[in-house]
Specification:
mainly beta; Pnp Oxidase, Chain A; 2 helices; 8 strands
Length: 105
C-alpha cells in the first residue's frame, strides 16, 4: 500500500478479485475491470464489468433490499448551482423492472 493510504483515517481491506483494496465502512463493494473507454471532447465514459459484489448485511435483506432508514446512503445531486448532498427515503412503493420489448430478458 502507498504511504498516502497509511496516513489517512480510511480503513482498507484486501479485495477478492482485483488488486486495489476495498474501503471499509461502505454499504456495497463492487470490484470491476475495465471493458471499454469511450473518449469524447469533454468526458470519458468508462464501461466496466463487475467481477465481485458484496453488500453489508446489516443494511440489506434478500426480501426487502436496502433498509434506507438504517443505511442512510449519501447521494449527490449536481446542478447549475453546485452540488447538493442528500439521503433517499423509502416510499414503500415497489415495482418490477420493465424490460425493453426489443431486448431479451
Amino acid at each position: 500500500m502507498s504511504a498516502l493510504w497509511r496516513i489517512t483515517i480510511l480503513k482498507l481491506r484486501k479485495s477478492i478479485v482485483v488488486k486495489p483494496p476495498f474501503l471499509q465502512g461502505c454499504l456495497v463493494w463492487a470490484e470491476c475491470v475495465v471493458e471499454e473507454e469511450i473518449a469524447r471532447d469533454k468526458y470519458v465514459l468508462i464501461v466496466e464489468k463487475v467481477v465481485h459484489l458484496e453488500v453489508d448485511d446489516r443494511f440489506f435483506s434478500e426480501a426487502e433490499g436496502m433498509d434506507f432508514e438504517r443505511a442512510k446512503p449519501l447521494c449527490i445531486m449536481g446542478g447549475r448551482n453546485g452540488m447538493q448532498f442528500t439521503s433517499p427515503v423509502a416510499t414503500g412503493y415497489k415495482s418490477d423492472y420493465v424490460h425493453h420489448p426489443d431486448r431479451p430478458g
